[in-house]
Amino acid sequence: xxxxxxxxxxxxxxxxxxxxxxxxxxxxxxxxxxxxxxxxxxxxxxxxxxxxxxxxxxxxxxxxxxxxxxxxxxxxxxxxxxxxxxxxxxxxxxxxxxxxxxxxxxxxxxxxxxxxxxxxxxxxxxxxxxxxxxxxxxxxxxxxxxxxxxxxxxxxxxxxxxxxxxxxxxxxxxxxxxxxxxxxxxxxxxxxxxxxxxxxxxxxxxxxxxxxxxxxxxxxxxxxxxxxxxxxxxxxxxxxxxxxxxxxxxxxxxxxxxxxxxxxxxxxxxxxxxxxxxxxxxxxxxxxxxxxxxxxxxxxxxxxxxxxxxxxxxxxxxxxxxxxxxxxxxxxxxxxxxxxxxxxxxxxxxxxxxxxxxxxxxxxxxxxxxxxxxxxxxxxxxxxxxxxxxxxxxxxxxxxxxxxxxxxxxxxxxxxxxxxxxxxxxxxxxxxxxxxxxxxxxxxxxxxxxxxxxxxxxxxxxxxxxxxxxxxxxxxxxxxxxxxxxxxxxxxxxxxxxxxxxxxxxxxxxxxxxxxxxxxxxxxxxxxxxxxxxxxxxxxxxxxxxxxxxxxxxxxxxxxxxxxxxxxxxxxxxxxxxxxxxxxxxxxxxxxxxxxxxxxxxxxxxxxxxxxxxxxxxxxxxxxxxxxxxxxxxxxxxxxxxxxxxxxxxxxxxxxxxxxxxxxxxxxxxxxxxxxxxxxxxxxxxxxxxxxxxxxxxxxxxxxxxxxxxxxxxxxxxxxxxxxxxxxxxxxxxxxxxxxxxxxxxxxxxxxxxxxxxxxxxx
Length: 763
Ligand code: MN
What we know:
Hypothetical protein af1432, Ubiquitin-like (UB roll), binds manganese (II) ion, 5-stranded mixed beta sheet
C-alpha cells in the first residue's frame, strides 16, 4: 500500500522521529516530491504484485511508446515529461487497477501533447485503451474553458457526463494528484488557480466516489497552496499534539491489541489523526479553537470478519466508558456510498476522548480506496465477462452514489435529483463568461439562449459555437462554449422556433412572445385603421376619450380595442360612434385623385409616411397574422411590398409594381405599410410567376425546366400557349427563396438560345 504516503501508520512514525518545527519556520509541504524517477521494472513489479496475470508485454510497450512520444519534453521542474504519466500510472497501481487503466495512464497525455493520434493508439493498443485515452483528452480540453467556482457541482456532473468510463475519472484524479504534488515549479498564479479548482471540483469528486485518502491529500495540497500560513499553524499544532500524546496513542494501541488478543481476536490497531485541511474547515465551520476539537484522534481496529468486529466492540465497551450518542453501526446499515464500519467514542486512558472505527480489511479498503477496491473485492479478477459486469456495476454504483450524495437541502433539491436521474441525458455548455448551462441532451442553441435569459432567447439572431458561426438549431455537445448573437431589431422570435426548441422553458417563452407579438401586431393594425378613419372623418382622436368609451365597446383596454379592430371583430366606425355618439359614417373622400397612388408608391418607400408607429413584419405564409400573398405571381422577399387589409380576413401582400393594386386606389384606409422579416436560418419558398417566350424546337421546354431545376427553383405549374408557329408562351409558376434567387433564374433563362424573352408577372 505505497499510495498512502501519509497513511496513519507512516505519519505516526514520522511524528516520533521528526522534531516539531519552530513557529517561525516555513510550512513543510504536505508531500515531498519523489526523488528518484520510477523505472520500467518498478512499474511492472507493482502491477504484478497484485495481478500475477498482468500482460507485461503490453505494459512494456506502453512504457516505451509514451516515453518516445514525449521525447525531450520537460516539465516545469526540468524533469523529463515522461516522469509524469509514469507516476500517474504508479498512483493507480496502488488502487490495484487493471492493465488497460495502467496503460491508459501511461498514454494519457499523448494525444493532446504529442504527435500520437487516437487511430494509432487504437491500432497499437486496441480500442478499449484508445477510448480511455480519448476520454482523458476530452477532459483535458475541457480544462481550458474558464470556470466559475459557484458551479462546481455542475462541473463535476459535466466531468462525469463526458467520462463515460469510470476508469477515465480514476486516471484523471491520479493525474490531478500528481500535478498537485509537483506544482512548486509552476508560476504562483496558476498554482492558485489549479489549487482552487482542485478544492472545488476534484477533491469533492474523489470524496463522492468514496476515495477518502485521495480527497484528503488533494485537500491538503490545495490548502498548502491557498493558505500556507494557516496550513503551517494547523500542521504545527497537530505535530506538537502528536508529540505530546505519543505515549498515549501507543498505550491505547497496545492496550486495545492486548485486550483483543486475550479474547482470541487478531486485530490491526492504529491511531489516526485528522488531516490539516479537515481540521481547519472544522475550526472555521464551528468557530472553535484548536483545543476545543475533540476528535483530532481516531483509532482504527481492523479485523478478519464481521463477527470479530462485534466481539471487538463488546470488549472496547467493557474496557472504557462509552461517550453517549456517538455509537453508529454502519455495518448493519451501510452508508449510501457503501461505507461500512462501526463508530464509537470512549473515554480512554488519561480521560482522553478517543474515536474508534471498527471494520474488516475489506471495509477498510473500500473506505480508503473507494470504488476501485469495491470492484476489486466484489468480483476479483474473473473472466472477461465478469470483469465487464463488474465495470458496469461499478459505474452504476458510482452514479448511484453521486446521485444520492448530491441531494442537498437547497430549494432546487427536487430538480437536482431529477436531473441526476437523467444524468446521461444532459448536456453541459458554457457561456463566453464561463457560466455553465445544463440542458437536456439534444438541446440546441435556441434552448441555450432561453436558459440564459428570456430576453436573450427572444432577440437571438445567430450564434457562435466554440468560436465558429453556427445555425441556432445546432444541437449542443458537452463542453461547447456558446455565444448567442442578439439583435434589438428582433422583438419576437419566429413562431417556428417553438417546434425546434427541446426545453419546456424555451417553448413556453416562445409561445408567450409570439402571442404577445401577434396581439401587438393586431393592435398596431387596428390603430392604423382607426387613425385613418378619424383623419378622413376629420374628428379628433384621443386615448383619454377612448378610455371613457371602453364600456360601450365591452373592452377593458385601448390595446384590446385596437387588437379587436385589427382582427375585424369590431369596426373602426364602431369605435368612432362609441366616442362620438352622433358620428355618422360618411361616404369615402377621394384620396390623391389626381395622381395615381401606385405611381407614387413606385417612387417612395415607405408608401404611407402617415404614422411610422407600426410597420407590420411579414414573415412568410406561415405567419402569425393572417397573411396571404397576391394570386398570380405574389411577392418574394426583396420585393418592395404593400399590404391590403380586408378587415376580418387579413392582409394580402402585393409587390408595389402589381397592376392589381389599382383596384384599391380609392380605399386608402386599406393600405398598410409592411416589411419583410425573414429568418435567413430557416429558408422558405415563395410563389412567383414568370412569362417565357421560347423558340419552338424539340427539347426547348426540357431545357427551360432544367435551368430552373438546376438553380434550385421549384416548378409548380406550367401553362403553354402557342403564339405563332415559331414561338410559344410559357406561364411558369415557381417557388423561389427571394428576389435574388428569382432574378438569377431569369438571367440564366435569358442566356439560353431557345429563350427569346423572359418577364416577371405580377397579378
Ligand atoms: Mn497529465
